[in-house]
Amino acid sequence: MRYLPLRPDDRKAMLARIGVASIDDLFRDVPEAARDAHFDLPRHASEMKVERTLSYLASHNAAAGSFPFFCGAGAYRHHVPATVDHLIQRSEFLTSYTPYQPEIAQGTLQALFEFQTQVALITGMEVANASMYDGSTATAEAVLMAHRITGRSRAVLSGNLHPHYAETVRTMGELAGEIVVAPASAGVPEGLERVIDDSTSCVVVQNPDVFGSLSDLSRLAEAAHAKGALLIAVVTEAVSLGLVESPGAMGADIVAGEGQSIGNALTFGGPYVGLFAAREKFLRQMPGRLAGQTVDADGRRGFVLTLSAREQHIRREKATSNICTNSGLCALAFSIHLALLGEKGLGQLARLNHATAVRLAERLSAVKDVELVTQAFFNEFTLKLPKPALDVADALADRGIIAGVRASRLYPHDSRLRNHLIVAATETNTDADIDAYASALAEVIA
Amino acid sequence: MTELRFTQSHEWISVEDGIATVGITRYAADQLGDVVFVELPAVGKIFAAGAEAGVVESVKAASEIYAPLAGEVTEVNESLGADPAAVNSDPEGKAWFFRVRLANPSSVAALMTKDQYTEFLKGL
Q: B62: which chain A residues are within 8 Å (Cβ-Cβ)?
């Protein structure tokens, strides 16, 4: 393809057509001061100097693997076997984009098909797509899908949905309808049923929720269905699906999740991999790419991208979504790790996570004036501290303990949550980590 | 049934007792390729002439179906849900899409006859 730059008279004609005098006029909404922003950047430097400077800056970071680390709230540190990185770095996988000439990419399609199968199995749903960008955008897409299915446009978000997810739903969904967010509370979302009315398209609830609490979603599912609304279950910790009753078994219609926990490192918050699964009757309203299994002219097993006519490159403005891609490599890492674990291995990993979290919760809540707020949890729970969680977490960081995510970071305007600390434990936390945390917490609070 | 009439957007229509049966033409079905899904309107829905009434999807394309004339949907062909391939095998017969009680039955005269439609296709 040739690159044809514009000539001055091309530019003039284009500007005249849209009715502005100059290119600068297009930026007049940007405040004058911001337009003339001056950045005091150093001049260029040699490669060796740059490497040295950046290494020095990087050494100020506290990498999750170098300390007792207890942060979760949507991103979890798990062990990723070396096999995963080795396999995803095969160039056939590493360099390929989502298939646009799909049938020649049989290996990619098979990997996606197996990913979808795994996602459907662990979520307890009938169909799953080839992945979304991440858990939060998957949740927003689930809300839009519920609007399409029900012909309604009011979404009810549980207060225990991760605030970043709620924010993403608002960003992507506020033009599509009303979004009602119930107040946050650590524990079972009481009274959420009463917010569901005849104009409600869906109820979005996270399990385990942002505070780590586990709930039985069955009653909420029944309440939603009684009003003709759908239940969207959000899972931010995919490992929990190895132990906790699946959202499908509890009556969810759509499951949106974050798959980072399986096969993917924390990597500063992305790229991650969104999980998206639903009941088969809603298949045609699903967003995203779908790999399907078929047979070729000779009866041999093969794979295709199917139901593409839902997608934007064909359906244009009437597409189910503007996602025409997926998180291919992260999905592959998820699939490889889950295949290595197997059904039994995932169950064992989940039990190990839970057991570690229970030990940690017992030790921390035994510290004077520390209260365990979460009644039932998987690998994450919330503590109410006698002091602001910000001060406690900072003091623990000074002692080399990354203590968790303070709730005030997620709910900056909710003063009731100022002393709450959200703490996660995974298989990567040792008994020594737990000892160190418990004794440091006792010191800091005393 | 009366003789078929045709639209420039490749629907056919056949009117009996003020009720019009609507489908897509063989030409349209051949152009689309293997049809995999048909989205039909709700019974009771009222359309203006030329309004979007449904969608037909093939393996690689999706295309709107338009109401040839104004009226109210009285019936839809549910069998297309299980057998969308009928649109390819028998587009101008078994694979009708929906029936409409016409607001103005005489308006059908404005649509193309079979011969006119054949001429129209030659010009495409």
A: 309-310, 314-315, 318
